[in-house]
Amino acid sequence: MHKRTILIAIVAIVVVISSFVYFTLHNTFIVSVSLADDNIITSDGRGLYKHQVDGVWLEYESYFLIDVNSPRVVHVSFMDASWKDANLRFMPSRLPSSNYWMDLILQEKDQTGRYVDLFEMEVGEKDFLPELQIQIFFIDPSTSTIVGIDTIHEKGGFFTQFYNTTWINSTTAEPPQSLRDESRIELTRTREDTWVLDVDAWLVSYYGPHLYTGNMKDYVKLSLNLTINKKRAM
């Protein structure tokens, strides 16, 4: 009888532990990101960007964030991109085509201004500008200097999302409507575990020694195709 009681207790403990492990793994996600070629922003050729692997950090609860840091980079062909100055005149590229660290955040607001969960989209659903909001920091790995905060924002300004949570004031919406009309930012849930971000858009780019004052800016048309894969561990 005593042995049977011990056996029952052992089985119960195993069941509890197994249930806990299953629950934990079922609610744990393996997330990776890939960048397609033939865009202004492409990968470094080292395969998938994975959370907490080789300097990559991903966040994917209601918004999406990718932080690419050493030893990983992205390649940005700035010299192949279109640029305009603050007066909307075409200009040469301000930055060289090179490898950069990158921080990108994607969020979405509904028509009431409330943030919504990107990952609650239905399969086949698409979201677009102006509800989608994007912000990209580019950092020169050789100097660890931010060379541009590239974004789209409304009149009044916006909070930067990386390094300094700082309000950049603006008396106008940026970029202006004429450039927005030539822009596309689209997020599609293509499968149960896959989202695709397609960008071909003019962004305002803030730069200079007083980066967070927003008093130095130009415009650059950037493109990328980014696939987010989010699978349960079990």
Number of helices: 2
What oligomerization state is this entry in? single chain
Q: First CA to last CA: what distance?
A: 38 Å
- Provide the succession of SSEs: HEEEEEEEEEEEEEHEEE
Helical residues, percent: 10-25%
Radius of gyration: 22 Å
List keywords for this structure.
234 residues; 14-stranded antiparallel beta sheet; two-stranded antiparallel ribbon; mainly beta
What does this protein structure show overall?
- With 234 residues, this protein is mostly beta strands.
- The chain has one domain.
- 12% of the residues lie in helices and 44% in strands.
- The strands form 2 sheets. Strands 1, 2, 3, 4, 5, 6, 7, 8, 9, 10, 11, 14, 15 and 16 form a 14-stranded antiparallel sheet that branches.
- β12 and β13 form a beta hairpin.
- About 5% of the residues have low confidence.
What does the secondary structure layout of this molecule look like, with pairings?
Layout: H1 2-26, E1 29-35, E2 41-43, E3 49-50, E4 56-59, E5 64-68, E6 74-76, E7 82-84, E8 98-108, E9 126-128, E10 132-140, E11 145-151, E12 156-159, E13 167-170, H2 177-180, E14 184-191, E15 194-206, E16 217-232
Antiparallel strand pairs: 1-3, 1-16, 2-6, 4-5, 5-8, 6-8, 7-16, 8-10, 9-14, 10-11, 11-15, 12-13, 14-15, 15-16
